[in-house]
């Protein structure tokens, strides 16, 4: 078959966890979507807080205490809340020109390399869980907070717990993707 008529290879990265059939989204997919929605709502809360602070500062000459601390903690929380769903839906920033070139002629190799990258991602997310979890406990037991005592005290541990939860969820998604790519590499070898 001439190269210009050869069918394109399947996408290197299929979306998310296996379909359960009923709703079209797996239970794990629903969890990642819920985290994504919570992250989006947190972005809206941050936008309202920043605008209220700007209005309070410029119109009433009275800024809202704790907005800067809340925004600083929330930005990281949003990233980790939305990371697993972004990975699941293959919407992360990537440069896959190299993989697409390989996938045309060597789809098995492309799937195998992608599977290794997914495993590395899972390990990195697991390391975040392992190293941040003791900080969550320390912040909770020590009652650490951001802000000024007796003015505004925002506990840090919930935001650290979100990092752990988001990293764990993303690690699971990386493992699902590694499995799918590994199976694609094996199927390509037997085909």
Describe this protein's structure:
This protein has 191 residues and is mainly alpha-helical. The chain has one domain. The protein has five helices and two strands; from the N terminus they run ααααββα. It has helices at residues 27-58, 67-88, 97-105, 107-141, 157-190, and strands spanning 145-148, 152-155. The chain has a two-stranded antiparallel ribbon with strand order 1-2. Helix 2 packs parallel to helix 5 (157-190), helix 3 runs antiparallel to helix 4 (107-141) and helix 4 runs antiparallel to helix 5. The longest helix has 35 residues, at 107-141. The radius of gyration is 22 Å and the shape is elongated. Mean pLDDT is 86; it is low at 8-22.
What is the number of E strands? 2
What global shape is seen? elongated
The radius of gyration over CA amounts to: 22 Å
Percent in strands = under 5%
Low-confidence stretches: 8-22
Sketch the major β-sheet.
2 strands, antiparallel
Structure class: mainly alpha
Proportion of residues in helical segments: 55-70%
Mean pLDDT: 86
Taking strands numbered 1, 2, ... along the chain, how are they ordered across the largest sheet? 1-2
Number of helices: 5
Helix and strand element order: HHHHEEH
Distance between the termini: 17 Å
For the record, the count of structural domains works out to 1
Structure keywords:
mainly alpha, two-stranded antiparallel ribbon, 191 residues
């Amino acid at each position: 078959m001439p190269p210009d008529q050869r069918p394109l290879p399947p996408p290197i990265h299929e979306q998310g966890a296996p379909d359960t059939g009923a709703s079209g989204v797996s239970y794990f997919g629903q969890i990642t979507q819920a985290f994504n929605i919570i992250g989006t709502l947190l972005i809206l809360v941050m936008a309202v807080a920043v605008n209220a602070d700007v209005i309070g500062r410029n119109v009433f000459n009275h800024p809202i205490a704790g907005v800067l601390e809340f925004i600083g903690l929330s930005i990281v929380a949003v990233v980790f809340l939305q990371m697993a769903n972004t990975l699941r839906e293959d919407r992360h920033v990537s440069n896959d020109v190299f993989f697409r070139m390989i996938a045309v002629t060597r789809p098995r190799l492309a799937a195998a390399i992608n599977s290794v990258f997914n495993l590395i991602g899972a390990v990195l997310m697991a390391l975040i869980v392992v190293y941040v979890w003791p900080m969550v406990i320390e912040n909770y037991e020590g009652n650490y907070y951001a802000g000024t005592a007796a003015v505004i005290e925002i506990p840090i541990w919930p935001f650290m717990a979100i990092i752990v939860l988001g990293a764990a969820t993303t690690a699971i998604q990386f493992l699902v993707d590694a499995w799918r790519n590994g199976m694609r590499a094996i199927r390509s070898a037997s085909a």
